[in-house]
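REVIEWER CHECKLIST
Item 1: Sequence provided? yes
Item 2: Single chain? yes
Item 3: Sequence as submitted:
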Amino acid sequence: MNEDRTREQRTPAGTEPGWMPPGVTGESTSSPSPAAPTKAECSEALLRVFEFLDGELGPDDCAKIQAHLDECAPCLQEYDLDTTLKAIVKRSCGSEQAPDVLRSTIMSRISLTVVELEQGR
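Item 4: Structure as written out by the authors:
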């Protein structure tokens, strides 16, 4: 067997040095960086990150959060942590489903918290 062929078979796709997803050149095509996001923009993005993760946002809000994550490293780091947390919870709970009473209580408290946060603005 050819040594190059063996090396190729052992290297998973996408892990070769210099590999980039299709359509990505590695060169910046954007204009100079815009101003850093404000604390208020970060707060709003982080408040909605789980809705973003769960696909519960409309297209406009989804694009807004994605754009913010693309330009804000601290929020992207928080997003990555939330993504990991969600995956761990899903793996740990597997196919178990919360009782209806618990789900209802949690949803009520979330709604109340959202209302309180919106009134505090």
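Item 5: Key structural point noted by reviewer: The helical segments are 3-10, 39-47, 49-53, 59-71, 73-93, 100-119.
Item 6: Recommendation: ____
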